Amino acid sequence: MLFRNRFLLLLALAALLAFLSLSLQFFHLIPVSAPKNGASSKSRKRIMPDPVMEPGVPGPIHEALLYCNIPNVAERSMEGHAPHHFKLISVQVLIRHGDRYPLYTIPKTKRPEIDCTLVANRKPYHPKLEAFISHMSKGSGTSFESPLNSLPLYPNHPLCEMGELTQTGVVQHLQNGQLLRDIYVKKHKLLPTDWSADQLYLETTGKSRTLQSGLALLYGFLPDFDWKKIYFRHQPSALFCSGSCYCPLRNQYLKKEQHRQYLLRLKNSQLEKTYGDMARIVDIPTTQLRAANPIDSLLCHFCHNISFPCTKNGCIDMGHFKVIKMHQIEDEKERREMKLYLGYSLLGAHPILNQTVNRMQRAAEGRKDEIFALYSAHDVTLSPVLSALGLSEARFPRFAARLIFELWQDREKPSEHSVRILYNGVDVTFHTSFCQDHHRHSPKPMCPLENLVHFVKRDMFVALDGSSTNYYDACHMEVV
Questions:
Q1: What parts of the sequence cross the membrane (predicted)?
Q2: What is the pLDDT of residue 248?
Q3: Less Cβ around it within 10 Å: N or C end of the chain?
Q4: Mean pLDDT across the stretch 46-68?
C-alpha cells in the first residue's frame, strides 16, 4: 500500500512538472515589445489560453495555435527518409513567409505594438540570429532581379509596418533552414562545400516578408552564405504562374468559390451577430468592419499574446475570436466538399507544378544545376498547390509552412527515380492523387517519378472535365 501511494504521488508530481514545463516553454518564447518609459513588462495584459487546451481537437483555439507556429522545441520531421539504396538527387521547397504584422487594422482601434527590429538576445531566439543580422546588414550591395533589389533584407522598424516580417518570422525560417541543412546537406550531401550559384534556383514575390523569409531559410540551410552566389528572381504573381497567368476558367472558378463563401457567411447567424457586436464596440458599420478583415488583426494579437482591442464601448474578446475562427474551419470543410476550389486549384497550381516536374526530369537526366530550388511565397500560393495535389485534409498553411518535393535515384536501378512529398515535415506522398493507390499496384517503397509527371502533364486536366489535354485548352473552356 505504501509503495502504491508513493507511486501515485510520483505520478501526480510528474504530470504537474510536465504541465509547468510546457506552459513555461510556450509563454517564455513569445516576443513582446520593449516596455516604454521604464514601465514593467509584467503589467502587460495577456490573452493566450492554456496551450494544452483542446489537445488534438480541431477547435478554434487549437487551430489558431497551430497557425501561429510559435518556434520553441526542435521539430521532428520525415524529410530525407528513404531506403538505404536510394540517393537524393534534388530538392524543391515551397514556403509561406514567416510570422508577419497584420495586413489590415480594425478601424478606430490602437495598432498592436510589436517591435520589428531584430534583437539577438530577445526571444524567440535562434543560435544563428545574431550572425544573420550581421550578414544581412552587409548585403546592401546585393543584386537581385528588379524590383527585389529595392527591398530591405531584414525587418528593422521599432513599430512594425503593415505586413512586415517579425523576429518570430525570421526565427521560424532560420529554424526551417537549419533543419533542412542537417538533413539534406550534412546527411545526404546534396550540396558540396564548394557549391556554385547555378546549383540554386531562388524565386520570390515582390514583398519584403517573402524575400526576407527566403534569406532566413537560406542562411540556416547553406554550408556557407556567400552573397556572390545568391540571386533571387522576382515573381509578380502569387500563383507563381510566370508567363502563363491568363486563365479565364480559373478566374470563373474563383468567382464561384467566392460566391460560395458569401452564401456560407449569410447562413451563419452567430457570425453575423458577432460582427455586429464588434462593430458596435468600435463604433463603425458592420459592413466596414467585415471589409477590414478583423481576423487578420486578431490573429496577430493572439499569436503575440497581446490583449484584443478595447474602446469606451467595451472590448473585443476571445468569444468573438472563436466564432470567427470557427467559421473559417467550417468554410474550409465546405470548400473541400463543394469542389469549386479544386477546379481553381488545378488551374492555379499547374504552372508551378509544371516547373517543378520539368526541373525533376532534368535532374533525373543527370543535370547538376538547380538541384535545390526555393520558392518563397504566400498562403494563397501553397493552398491551391495542396488542393491540386489531392491533399484535401492538409491544414491551411501556417506561418512558415513548407511543402517539399524530393527526387531520389535507385542505386540498384539507376534509371529509376522516385518522388516524396512532405508538408511541414510529414510524409504525405501516399495521400496525393497521383500516388494514393501506389501500394495496391506496386511493391516499390517510393512513388515513381512517372506518376507525378503523368499527373501534371495529363491527369490534372482530366480531373477538370476530361476533354482537355493541355493547360491552354483547359483555361479556355467554359465552366459548367
A1: none
A2: 96
A3: N
A4: 66
Q: Could you identify the residue written with the cell 512538472? A: 17
Among candidate residues 62, 97, 126, 438, the one labeled active-site is 97
Cis peptide bond prior to 147, omega within 30° of 0? yes
| Cβ neighbours of residue 364 closer than 8 Å, sequence gap 6 or more | 89, 407, 409, 417, 449
Q: What are the boundaries of each domain within the chain? A: 74-242+341-476, 248-340
Which residue did the predictor score with more confidence, 53 or 193? Answer: 193
Which pTM value belongs to this model?
0.88
- Measured between alpha carbons, how far is 311 from 9 in angstroms, rounded to an integer? 48
φ, ψ (nearest 5 deg) of residue 468: -95, 150
DSSP 134-181: HHHHT-TT---STTGGGS-SS---SSPPTT-B-HHHHHHHHHHHHHHI
- The single residue listed with the C-alpha cell 544573420 is 132
Q: Report angle CA 290, 296, 301 to the nearest 5 degrees.
A: 120
Least confident of 78-82, 127-131, 234-238, 467-471: 467-471
Whole-number Cα distances in Å, 317 to 70, 110, 274, 323, 413: 21, 15, 10, 10, 60
Handedness of CA 74, 78, 83, 88 (dihedral sign): negative
Q: Is 379 a catalytic residue?
A: yes
Active site residue 97: yes
**404, containing H or E segment:** strand 402-410
Pairing verdict, β 402-410 and 372-377: unpaired
User: Is residue 35's pLDDT more than 50?
Assistant: no
Q: How far is CA 122 from CA 21, 82, 130, in A?
A: 20, 38, 11
**Residue among 262, 303, 364 at smallest CA distance from 112:** 303
CA 86-87-92 angle, to 5 degrees, is 115
Assign domain 74-242+341-476 to its CATH architecture: 3-Layer(aba) Sandwich (3.40)
